[in-house]
Amino acid sequence: MSDTRSAARARYHHGDLANALAREAVALAREGGPEAVVLREAARRAGVSAAAAYRHFSSHEELLRVAKERGHELLADALEEAIPADADPRERLRALGAAYVGFAVAEPGLFRTAFCHGVRELAVDERELGEYRAFRIVAGALDALLAAGLMPAERRPGAEFPSWAALHGLALLTIDGPLAVCDAATRAAMLDATLDLVERGLTS
């Protein structure tokens, strides 16, 4: 065994293995989506036995949950980073929409993993949707539209759902549907059309 591998095992025995396996799970998700997140492969990449890995994650589902949650965190990070500092409410909404689809295109494996089935969802009913940071960011953008007088008050309740659905649907069509084979100009046109539709539906 190499000195490097021995040092790695020593660190893991002192409590780093769980984090190492989590990092490998995210890497596997990036490379191949939720189907690629396999506990034995994560253990192999971390340089430990499957038995050692099972002491930290008792099942494939537990490891997949880590990758799923990390996908949601990185999606929310991308949304926050996309908002211009001096954006007006309309620009903020459009920036979020473009960033949502952009994340799916840039990180298809993580995007698929974030919304995969097979583990209990982060949110189990409407009251818990705030657990999704991306949901809170979208809600904040709609609140800003309302506060600026750009959105009729009667349209605000529940508006996150159709807004999110439109963008999520476009993202899936772009990475897994017919838009996947379209050129960049066509994809950009579809994104603009979707953002126009969402904005008009919310503000007109």
Task: Give a structural overview.
The chain is mainly α. The chain has nine helices and no strands. It has helices at residues 3-32, 39-46, 50-54, 60-82, 89-106, 108-114, 133-147, 160-176, 184-203.
Percent of sequence in beta strands: under 5%
Number of discrete helical segments: 9
Helix content: over 70%
Distance between the termini: 67 Å
Précis, in short:
The chain is mainly alpha-helical and 204 residues long. It has helices at 3-32, 39-46, 50-54, 60-82, 89-106, 108-114, 133-147, 160-176, 184-203.
Secondary-structure map:
Elements: H1 3-32, H2 39-46, H3 50-54, H4 60-82, H5 89-106, H6 108-114, H7 133-147, H8 160-176, H9 184-203
Which key phrases capture this entry?
0% strand; 204 residues; disordered N terminus; mainly alpha; elongated
